[in-house]
Amino acid sequence: MAADAGDAVTTLRELAHGIYPPLLAAEGLTVALQGQARKAATPVETIADGVGRYPQEVEAAVYFCVLEALDNTGKYAKATKSTVTLAQTIGDLTFQVVDDGVGFDPATPPRGHGLTNMVDRLQALDGAVAVPSQPGRGTTVAGFTPVPFMTDTSVEAAWRLMPTRTERPPRHRVDCARTDVR
């Protein structure tokens, strides 16, 4: 119980101060969210295929948005489970937090500042968030933020999907603002 209280205090401090959590810095978004999912009030499945490392501000924005959504699920949703899905699409890092809880009427004003915080974090990076819900149908928090089109991770992932290959893909970076390859 003391360990749980310590974890709760640490998480609260990170949320309150917007600190870049050490596990996020060391291991990346997927591992950090899996660690937080284990501490959630309800069981959480985390799905993150092809998600690599991103600039610190992108990882922090998505991390804290997902934590806010999971926190709201625990406080208000009366859910039995949640699913966190992370994916990199062409040019965007997307996330969804879906719960099977009681949902809410979107016309009713939100109780806290959580949605405002999510909107602010993502808009600062030219991203967005939407929260579709209906009473009795659960809630989905879905957001995105732009990311560079090709990272080393996405080059490797694309290479693995090719039906025939004879050698490893070249290791290079593509600067999206330029047309040449370095």
Helix percentage range:
40-55%
Spell out the helices and strands N to C.
HHHEHEEHEEH
Relative strand content: 15-25%
Strands, total number = 5
**SS class:** alpha+beta
Q: Could you list the spans in which at least 5 consecutive residues all have pLDDT below 50? A: 165-182
Gross morphology is globular
The overall pLDDT average reads 81
From the N-terminal CA to the C-terminal CA, the straight-line distance is: 52 Å
Q: Largest sheet at a glance? A: 5 strands, mixed
Number of helices: 6
Strand order of the largest sheet: 1-2-3-5-4
Radius of gyration: 18 Å
Report on this model:
The protein is an alpha+beta fold. Helix content is 40%, strand content 18%. The chain contains 6 helices and 5 strands. It has helices at residues 2-17, 22-27, 29-37, 56-77, 114-123, 152-161; strands at 44-49, 82-89, 92-99, 128-130, 139-146. The protein has a 5-stranded mixed sheet with strand order 1-2-3-5-4, with helices on one face. The protein is globular and about 40 Å long. Mean pLDDT is 81; it is low at 165-182.
Task: Please outline what is shown here.
The protein is an alpha+beta fold. Helices cover 40% and strands 18% of the residues.
Brief descriptors of the model:
6 helices; disordered C terminus; globular; alpha+beta; 5 strands; 5-stranded mixed beta sheet; 182 residues
